[in-house]
Specification:
- By secondary structure, the protein is of the alpha+beta class.
- It has 18 helices and 14 strands.
- The strands form five sheets. It has a four-stranded mixed sheet with strand order 1-4-3-2. A three-stranded antiparallel sheet has the order 7-8-9.
- Strand 10 and strand 11 form a beta hairpin.
- Helix 8 packs antiparallel against helix 15.
- It is globular and about 60 Å long.
- The N and C termini lie far apart (50 Å).
- This is Ni Fe-hydrogenase III large subunit-like protein.
Length: 511
């Protein structure tokens, strides 16, 4: 047997170990503690992509992606509230191990990082989602940041950006250790907008939670609606009509264009380039007015339901025919001005660099990942999208300028997709839409949608139309963690621009 044949045989050993166990549910296999250790030991030789991890009662649920898209889950129950961590092998699990420790009180042994992530100093002796809860701390105990202790003696200093300062989009606490103008260490703390989303969605009827799903993240509302609807349709084994799928594509692309314009305008405001920022802001306002006129809501909330979308009779005044020409003109003008602005390219290239290796290790998708050479787009797996709409992006630099360029290109691509489908929707013959009977649903489903930050996943378990377990894997969580490391070594004057280039992250972290 040759060396290449040997590596091929060992390639899928972790997958084989998982699949040889009893399949407990549609997506999850049940394994024991010792077997979990064996699976973890084989992960370095396997290409399984880590997706998410959370707790359901005493079980820890770990969700992987096989072949890049197919969900493969593992359920493990541990005799004590400790388990073998996988963050040393799959760094994308760091955030989830920290969340599990804070919310469920299960500690990851040999974890790469177990610092507080959402705790504001009140959960020192309790875990909010655990069945073994204790008293909360009051007053809250402040968190001690791990900063270089000898920095002051060497002439360095600390800087803090408090969430109450309203600096930027996200209400998060940032603390920097600096030597001169250079950032030595950066650390962020979220949780200021933590809303207990998962608890508020559990034990509720599917129809009752739809308005809440729409409002989890205003900027990415459509992605949440579509991903949740896909999960329910997966349970019901229901395929929406072509007309419904096309309308969902329009709504999804509209939402992404609005978000990209918002993020770009923030970057240009940080750079004090008002001439470009104003064009992005005006284009976004015109597009939001157009969305409100034809789809009933500026933020496109309450538009997507399991198996359906809102009808035109309910939401708009007539049928949408084409996008406003001024929106396309303003976007093209802003892109042209960015390329022609003196010194802009030189000042933004090479700052806030996310390498391809980091993007792969932390499972970073969306604009952030694609600008770093990780060309992952979940839309390529969706039947409602044509592959010619989603041409590969040839970016590997992973810096602020690449992310800005890619946002403009994605805007152009999205506007083209919307205009193409609008004509199809207009000419499509009416088809009677089938419906899902919510009260008859039992089982579990997984749904996904490519949102503005990347691939957004929903896991939902339902009994008689009541949600018994739910988890949301928002790509912003890993992006928020990676952002800390990107700021180290950067100049202080660039930190705001780098953070703005990542977009709004707090709503994806503070679920």
């Amino acid at each position: 047997m040759t060396q290449s044949e040997t590596s091929f045989v060992t390639h899928s050993k972790a997958v084989d170990l998982i699949k040889k166990h009893k399949r407990e549910t549609k997506f999850f296999f049940r394994v024991e503690e010792e077997e979990w250790r064996e699976i973890v030991s084989k992960l370095p030789m396997d290409r399984l992509i880590f997706l998410a991890m959370w707790c359901s009662g005493e079980d820890i649920n770990v969700l992987f992606l096989e072949n890049g898209f197919r969900p493969l889950g593992v359920k493990v129950a541990f005799s004590v509230d400790r388990y073998l961590a996988i963050s040393q092998i799959r760094p994308a699990a760091i955030i989830y191990e920290r969340m599990i420790w804070e919310l469920w009180g299960k500690e990851a042994m040999n974890a790469k990082d177990l610092r507080p992530w959402l705790d504001r100093g009140m959960w020192k002796h309790t875990w909010p989602l655990s069945i073994k809860q204790g008293p909360v701390c009051w007053p809250p105990e402040p968190y001690d940041y791990e900063m270089p202790f000898d920095l002051i003696q060497k002439g360095g200093e600390f800087a803090v950006i408090d969430p109450s300062s309203c600096d930027g989009f996200s209400p998060s606490l940032w603390r920097f250790a600096m030597m001169g103008e250079r950032i030595i260490k950066a650390e962020s703390l979220y949780g200021y907008t933590h809303r207990s989303i998962l608890s508020n969605l559990s034990d509720k009827n599917i129809l009752d939670v739809l308005p809440k799903i729409s409002r989890i993240n205003a900027v990415d509302s459509v992605a949440h609606q579509i991903a949740f609807s896909h999960a329910i349709e997966d349970i019901a084994e229901f395929m929406p009509t072509v007309d419904v799928l096309r309308k969902r594509v329009i709504l999804s692309e509209l939402s992404k264009v609005n978000a990209h314009l918002l993020y770009l305008s923030k970057i240009f405001r940080d750079l004090n380039i008002g001439i470009i920022a104003s064009r992005c802001e005006l284009a976004r306002e015109l597009l939001m007015r157009w969305s409100a006129h034809y789809y009933g809501h500026r933020w496109l909330m309450d538009c997507v339901f399991p198996g359906a979308v809102r009808s035109l009779e309910e939401i708009g005044e007539g049928s949408a025919e084409k996008l406003p020409e001024k929106v396309k003109y303003l976007c093209a003008e802003a892109f042209k001005l960015m390329h022609g602005f003196p010194g802009l390219m030189d000042s933004l290239q090479g700052i806030g660099v996310l390498s391809t290796e980091q993007a792969i290790a932390y499972n970073i998708g969306g604009i952030i990942g694609r600008s770093s050479g990780r060309d992952i787009d979940i839309r390529r797996y969706m039947p409602e999208y044509r592959l010619e709409w989603l041409s590969p992006r040839n970016y590997t630099s992973g810096d602020v300028y690449a992310r800005m360029q890619l946002r403009f290109q994605e805007i152009q691509s999205a506007l083209h997709i919307i205009e193409t489908i609008l004509q199809d929707v207009e000419e499509a013959s009416p088809v009677e839409e089938k419906k899902i009977i919510i009260e008859t649903l039992y089982g579990e489903g997984i749904g996904v949608c490519e949102g503005v930050q990347g691939d957004l996943w929903y896991y939902v378990k339902v009994e008689a139309g009541i949600i018994k377990d739910i988890f949301i894997r928002d790509p912003a969580s890993n992006q928020a963690y990676v952002l800390q490391g990107l700021l180290e070594g950067e100049l202080w004057e660039n930190q705001s621009i780098i953070r703005s280039s990542f977009g709004i992250l707090s709503t994806g972290v503070d679920l």
